[in-house]
Amino acid sequence: MLKKIKEIWRKTDDIVLRYPMILVMALIAAISAVVSIEMDNEANQFSVIKLIITGCLGISLMFAIKMLSQRIGKGFLMEFFGTLFLVGFYFLLPEKEKDFTEVYAFLLIPTFILSHLLVSFIAFFGEKRELNFWQYNKNLFINLFLTAVFTGALVGGVALAILAVDKLFDINFDYKIYPKTISFLAILGSCFIFLLFNEKGLHQLEKDKNYPQILKFFTQFVLIPLLIIYAVILYFYAFKILINWELPRGWVSYLILAYSVVGILALLLVHPLKEEGTKSWVKIFSKIFYYTLIPLIVLLFVAIFTRILEYGYTEPRYFVLLIALWLTTVVLYFVFIKNPTIKFIPMSLFAFGLFSLVFPYFNTFSVAKRSQKNELEKVLNENKLLQNGKIDFSKRVSSKVVDEVSDKIAFLTIRKEKEFVNQFLDEKAQRKIAKNEIYNRKYEINGDVRSLFTNIDHTLKHQEFERLELVAENNFSAVSDYQYVAKLRDLRTGKLVLNGNTFTLNDQLYDNNKVFKLSMNSKETIDLFPQILKILGENRNGRIDVPEIAVKGDLGNYHFKIIFENLVREKVNSEKENIYFNDGFVLIREK
Asked: How confident is the model at residue 591 (pLDDT cuts 50, 70, 90)?
């Protein structure tokens, strides 16, 4: 037993000394996660969340640097520049949570993908170790899977142990102990376990080991047969398009991308087996896969440009087009290059991804904003909506035009193109969207712009559309029965604190599982959404003035009354339903 403990301690000591910066990044992220849970909606919580994001990015970045340093040396210098990059990345993120819009998702997700791609090839850049490159990534893949299994067991076991102690000995732990423990172990624990599996790093990972039989079985008998069936389905759909001579549906792009990416992964998994006695369908698939992609890529480009030509570029459409271009490059490379290397796949994807984020003028953010500006001007001019340079909201237009104008103004407003947007809006319209612009509420801005149109012709619509807006005609409310008044926006952003109690509002009204829940200290909760549905009632269309729009409820020792300025419900084809409101205030009294 003592020998085992010494061995575990020796391995732990070796991991700490070998991978200090990776563990530091994991520790920063893990501690920040615990602190964030403890802060629970405090004003400066977002600064800690930024540390979590930066720390998690640092784990993969520092691992990539470590692999490269084990090949060429100069580890300290590279870790120094890696740290500078992470510090700059932290300050690149916004200071306030309200400024953390969807735009940052299009920055963060590609950046995390790029950091993991870097891990896959950085130690083999310029090297001719094809089999070593494959072994290295295969071992990383297996170690990642084992890490997930071990971490799941560790986190689940510790959480159950805490629960057992809590219930059996009546200790009554604070409920936050569970998310804190899970977050800490999931980040730092998983990182440490992964490093344990990798032991000495690059030179061990690239060693020639036996091909795992389970991986061979999965690839040959499950993954590749499924891909063949999937390819047949896509080809039948392509023939249907040709026969009916119709444009492809938008979601076919994602199906083709899924088939392409998973197919490439399958080829990478069976790469060393191509010359061995594998199943005949594996050999056939390996030879024809890239040729099968050619007509599907043509279909992919048709589907992408159908959307782009109609609505312009957005960040998601840009990335889909970029991946289509990358797939085309990969296909051409493997079809025409005599002795291709599989390293080309992650290296080329990294190059395309880096281009999309940092290349001036042609990066995703510049292209999307420039395109939507042009599309907005095009819609306004084609429908003759401009009068003396300003949008004439009284002009009769179709709901489709209203949708396009509202979407594009909201899109550009969230992306800080206020000056460009305001040139088309009069002072009344600018004031209308100003308060939601401050808080970067895209859907509310969209609704504000829609509400400015007073002459929507639903007979010109391309789809069934219903819009009901309830407006409070009385701007005054009696407060004599209440002790406190607060802004509704403070309740929505978690800034409402009364007598040491933090009140928050979870208002997710744009999905199928709509909620409007008021919470106190993240423990007691009341759902007020049924009252909102009752207020909206069976009315279908139009603008209706009502004396007051309010919901009420009791929470702990407090009685609440939330009063709205307006309440809007929009339905498309009687299926997709959005509910939103501009602003309001909260009345509170102690019971």
From this structure: confident
